[in-house]
């Protein structure tokens, strides 16, 4: 494995360790039916208020079908509900229910503990540099994805001629 391939291996391990940390804390707080992605959705709704499925998908960087499944589980658990968007009845907004209120404090505590644990012994400048590099890697891959979609669309148009 090259040094650069190792970076992707490390980011994959970091993601797995983060999920494990969050899942362990969710279980310790008695929130056994939730997974880290549920926490991400609930946290967004606590911060921003009602959101459409598309906005949630974009905010947590997941495809809509994945977000639909996650939200459906939260609906079945009684933590969120789907309401018609008052501005566009064709759209549905995801809204918090009263049952979700007691989750806010433990979710915030888990998030805070994760940051304290993961960022321990890292100075802010180092952390800022790492975040900048990771954001650039993500942007490069996003740019390539868009370019590949455009190439595919051109190829399809050319074949139809």
From TrEMBL:
Q: Please state every residue range assigned to the domain named HTH marR-type.
A: 4-139
An example GO biological process term is: response to stress
The record's annotation in InterPro entries points to:
HTH_MarR-typ (IPR000835), MarR/SlyA-like (IPR039422), WH-like_DNA-bd_sf (IPR036388), WH_DNA-bd_sf (IPR036390)
Matching entries from Pfam families are given as:
MarR
Question: What molecular function terms (GO) are annotated for this protein?
Answer: DNA-binding transcription factor activity
The UniProt transmembrane annotation reads none
Q: Which protein are we looking at? A: MarR family transcriptional regulator
Phylogenetic classification of the source organism: Bacteria, Pseudomonadati, Acidobacteriota, Holophagae, Acanthopleuribacterales
